[in-house]
Design a protein that fits this description.
CATH topology of the largest domain: 2,3-Dihydroxybiphenyl 1,2-Dioxygenase, domain 1
InterPro entries: Glyas_Bleomycin-R_OHBP_Dase (IPR029068), Glyas_Fos-R_dOase_dom (IPR004360), Glyoxalase_1_CS (IPR018146), VOC_core (IPR037523)
Number of helices: 2
Domain VOC: 4-126
Oligomer: single chain
Protein name: Aldoketomutase
Keywords: Metal-binding
CATH architecture of the largest domain: Roll
Pfam families: Glyoxalase (PF00903)
CATH class of the largest domain: Alpha Beta
Number of strands: 8
Radius of gyration: 16 Å
Structural class: alpha/beta
Mean pLDDT: 93
Distance between the termini: 30 Å
Strand order of the largest sheet: 1-4-3-2
Length: 126
């Protein structure tokens, strides 16, 4: 049986603010949008150019309080070719980023950036 990763979903409080972040900071593009006004929610699917795996932003119309991220959510990971340059760009743009770091065995260099809802995105050196 063939299996294929399709998407990851995160719930967002302010759809426009989240779209702005994912498009400007991470370079994602809107693939499709499904609006269900009768059920009071909208789904927006984003992807990196040339990538098949999508990020689904679920926007519930009546969500007034920030979502409780809990302790089960880990992170989304995106690879970049020049980690230090991207880190500097995000820092200069005023995004919430951690310091550059790496694993002690040298297997990975990375930092984290937070989206408007507090979800962490790990930016890893390719």
């Amino acid at each position: 049986m063939t299996k294929k990763m399709l998407h990851t979903c995160v719930r967002v409080k302010d759809l426009e603010k989240s779209l702005d972040f994912y498009e400007k900071a991470l370079g994602m593009k809107e693939v499709r949008r499904l609006d269900y006004p009768e059920y009071k929610f909208t789904l927006v699917y984003l992807a990196l150019p040339g990538d098949e795996v999508e990020l689904e932003l679920t926007y519930n119309y009546d969500q007034e309080e920030p979502y409780d991220l809990g302790n089960g959510y880990g992170h989304i990971a995106i690879g970049v070719e020049n980690l230090e340059t991207v880190h500097e760009e995000y820092t200069q743009a005023g995004y919430d980023v951690t310091d550059l770091t790496g694993l002690s065995d040298g297997a990975a260099s990375y930092f984290f950036i937070k989206d408007p809802d507090g979800y962490k995105i790990e930016i890893i050196q390719l």
